[in-house]
UniProtKB/TrEMBL annotation:
InterPro entries hit by this protein: AAA+_ATPase (IPR003593), ABC_AA/LPS_Transport (IPR051120), ABC_transporter-like_ATP-bd (IPR003439), BCA_ABC_TP_C (IPR032823), P-loop_NTPase (IPR027417)
Keywords on record: ATP-binding, Nucleotide-binding, Transport
The ABC transporter domain, residue ranges: 43-290
GO BP: D-alanine transmembrane transport; L-alanine transport; L-isoleucine import across plasma membrane; L-valine import across plasma membrane
Gene Ontology annotations for the cellular component aspect, listed alphabetically: plasma membrane
UniProt protein name: ABC transporter ATP-binding protein
Length: 300
């Protein structure tokens, strides 16, 4: 078990009775859609193209993200993976093509509207509010869903007080879900690196996304932490979320994803189950010449 992330003691309710994982999951995502329509496309990228001046970073890329799956997005450095995330989440404006979620186009929507539509993400470089506690960082994400007005907050109306209490309960449940509830009151910048990554995931989950996009969540992790992260990603999927994962670590990608899309020079070169991708000649060729590391890069 790594130093930065470990099993937590059983959570108990106000009456001291232990709370089950299922009960925690219900508090974490009360409105989540149970994967009744598992396998249906949730998000569809259709001929998505992003250009930076003369450079085509994403070139007519088409694929579906199916409800309830963990989809890996892989490719050598500079292949266009992050650009793809950024185009989906409103950071970059695609030059052409479309991104739809449940059939509704996300093009032209502002970032917060895309969050509200149900896409949340983490970043390659951790972006937390360093001075805020772990719990406060999560509550910020929850606040995006609140309905009380500014006067409501100033005059502390019953609704505001109720929402505040619910936020704290849900925030704690989310921290529990990602395995760092014991650090709730620590300033996020003082948390070990692995905990900060988990906190980012908890904060993204606070918005109750339909799709959670993880951009290299295992960067800087040791093998034990990677194992624990794989478990957490599976737990997130099993709890009814759909996950899009950009990750360089092939063992992790092959071990945790249901399907994989491979990009090279902005183009999709393969799509399929992990075993298929591992043996795909185009994928092997794309990774040839990429420096191989024991735990990083290289297919297989
Ligand atoms: N804001 C930008 N302005 C200009 N070029 C960009 C911008 N963002 C990305 N690019 C270029 O687009 C291409 C794809 O980059 P991108 O970051 O999407 O690749 P990636 O697959 O995520 O790579 P990595 O694995 O190294 O993170 C690269 O050539 C990159 O230099």
């Amino acid at each position: 078990m790594s130093e930065s992330s470990g099993p937590q003691e059983a959570v108990t309710g106000p009456d001291g009775v232990p709370i089950s994982q299922e009960e925690i999951a219900d508090i974490v995502a009360p409105d989540r859609e149970i994967a009744v329509s598992e396998g249906e496309p949730l998000v569809q990228l259709d001929e998505l193209t992003v250009q930076f001046g003369g450079l085509t970073a994403l070139d007519h890329v088409t694929f579906d993200i199916k409800r309830g799956e963990i989809l890996g997005l892989i490719g050598p450095n500079g292949a266009g993976k992050t650009t793809c995330f950024n185009a989906m989440t409103g950071v970059y404006k695609p030059s052409s093509g479309n991104v739809t979620m449940e059939g509704v186009s996300l093009l032209g929507k502002k970032r917060h509207a895309i969050t509200r539509a149900g896409i949340a993400r983490t970043f390659q470089n951790i972006r937390l509010f360093g001075e805020m506690t772990a719990l406060e960082n999560v509550v910020v994400g929850l606040d995006a869903r609140h309905r009380t007005s500014v006067p409501g907050a100033i005059f502390r109306t019953p609704r505001h007080v109720r929402e505040e209490r619910e936020s704290i309960d849900r925030g704690m449940a989310l921290l529990e879900f990602v395995g760092i509830a014991d650090q709730a009151t620590s300033p996020s910048r003082s948390l070990p690196y692995g905990y900060q990554r988990r906190l980012e995931i908890a904060r993204a989950l606070a918005t109750e996304p339909k799709l959670l996009c993880l951009d290299e969540p295992a960067a800087g992790f040791n093998p034990a932490e990677k194992q624990e992260l794989m478990q957490l990603i599976r737990q997130i999927r099993d709890d009814g979320y759909t996950v899009l994962l950009i990750e360089h670590d092939m063992k992790l990608v092959m071990g945790v994803t249901d399907r994989i899309v491979v990009l090279e020079f902005g183009r999709k070169i393969a799509e399929g189950a992990p075993q298929q991708i591992q043996q795909d000649p185009a994928v092997i060729a794309a990774y040839l010449g990429v420096e191989e590391d024991e735990d990083d890069d290289g297919v297989a």
